Amino acid sequence: MHPVSPGEACLSEAIRQTLAAPPAQRAALFEELVRAIEGTVSATCPGHPWTCQIYDGLDGSRIFRGGIGTSLVIDPDGRLWRARSYEDFETTYRIENNACEIETLCPLYAQMRQYLPR
After folding, report:
1. Which residues fall within 8 angstroms of residue 86, CB to CB, at 6 or more apart?
2. 70 forms bridges with which residues in the sheet?
3. pLDDT category, 62, cuts 50, 70, 90?
4. From residue 33, how far is each of 1, 60, 82, 86 by CA, in Å?
5. How far apart are CA 98 and CA 95, in angstroms?
6. Which 8-state DSSP code applies to residue 3?
7. What residue spans define the domains of the chain?
């Protein structure tokens, strides 16, 4: 059995809070919440890191990529989507100094699942 990251319960609550917010405020709110989760998990469970990298999508979306192969996307209209970090994006990379970094991400929404308020 794999241990569950302590950030997962916090992430569920962050998604709930984000869905309850007005669509125009969702990306900024979710970014604030995931940064708080990173800080909390880092301080309380250093052996179980919880990370999130944030990108701007080519379509104006905000993309939150976790360390376990999943992403959350907030599209320009404020809708939330669950995505697979590799399969659900058209991605370009930049290779410099023996490092490969993401250059652009374009979400493929038809392949994603939309989060809806409960």
Report:
1. 69
2. 84
3. very high
4. 28, 20, 17, 24
5. 7
6. P
7. 7-115
Per-residue pLDDT at 58 exceeds 80: yes
- Residue ranges of alpha helices (H) inside the chain are 7-20, 26-44
Cβ-based neighbour number of residue 52 at 10 Å: 19
* Amino acid found at 31: E
Cα separation of 79 and 23, whole Å? 7
Which whole number is the average pLDDT over 70-77?
Answer: 96
Query: What are the pLDDT digits (tens) for 9-44?
Result: 789 999 999 999 999 999 999 999 999 998 888 888
**Is residue 59 within 8 Å of 76, Cβ to Cβ?**
yes
What per-residue confidence (pLDDT) applies to 4? Answer: 59
The pLDDT score that the predictor gives to residue 50 is: 81
Bridge partners of 83, per DSSP, are 71
Diameter of the chain measured on Cα atoms? 47
Degrees, nearest 5: CA angle 94-75-23: 145
| Cα separation, 79 vs 18, whole angstroms | 10
